[in-house]
Known about the structure:
Elements: E1 2-7, H1 11-14, E2 22-27, H2 30-36, E3 42-44, H3 50-59, E4 65-67, H4 78-84, E5 87-89, H5 96-111, H6 114-122, E6 140-144, H7 148-159, E7 163-167, E8 175-176, E9 190-193, H8 207-212, E10 218-221, H9 230-238, E11 244-247, E12 267-269, H10 281-298
Parallel strand pairs: 1-2, 1-3, 3-4, 4-5, 6-7, 6-9, 7-8, 9-10, 10-11, 11-12
Helix pairs in contact: 5-7
Amino acid sequence: MTVLVMNALAAPLVQPHLPDWIEPRFFRHTAELMEMAPEAEIGWFDLEDTAPMAEAVRLAAKLKWLTSIYAGVDGLPLSLMAERGVVMTNGAGINAITIAEYVVMGMLTMAKGYREVVRAQDRHEWLTDSPGKLELEGSKALILGYGEIGQRVDRALTGFGVEVTKVRRSAGEGTLLPDQWRARLSEFDWVILAVPGTAETERMIGEGELAAMKPSAVLVNVARGSVVDQDALVAALTAQKLGGAFLDVTTPEPLPADHPLWAMPNVHITMHLSGRAQGKMFKRAVERFLGNLERFRRGEPLTHQVDLALGY
């Protein structure tokens, strides 16, 4: 028997489909996870907070495979897992559809000034002109991070007539290499961040990058708050050196109620909801897990495996 330790919230979806060689143990709270983790051979330790998940991994000396519904793995002890020979799979792509839709929604909302339209409705006020007059057609967007989210954003924006440039490690049409995009920042109306949260991407958008962007450009971040130097972003927005920002992620989360970003008229904050704006997340995650469970049994490579050295 192979011991599986996972959150009891997923038990109704998973338990009826588990094979007889799996011994499931479902934790209902963090303390139970810490008790069960040392016996786990397969772990699905997902919690709202990364810190106890990381502690559970440290305790799980028998762990062979760790899976997660989350795409981001920052905060987990990846080097320790590598030392122990643990395989990790993640939720990359599970939320890609809704996150990509959120990017397009955010761009349209800011282009058309739609927040002011909603506020006018709340006041029962009939506007006689649009508060936003930008069209996506003919604008230029840079996508940093060309995984499934970035690819879906690319396809969607191309349909709107946006000229899309993406950053990748391999050259190609409409592509910039990782050492080229900074020199081209002044060309883009939209800079879209969909990169993983790693040491390499931390504060990749800082004072210099913000200064290089068009004064009318909008920064769209559906990656991690750590990817942006938030103090530099506040300074650029305050000085009106940037057109605006659509932020699904911030540092920290939740963003403190007195943080200046909340009150900025050219900032939209969507509280890390982009991946939650759908009802299929758990269904997709369970289907992926069950498929990988059979591969694990047969000793085959698992799908959506994390490169523990790269961090994604």
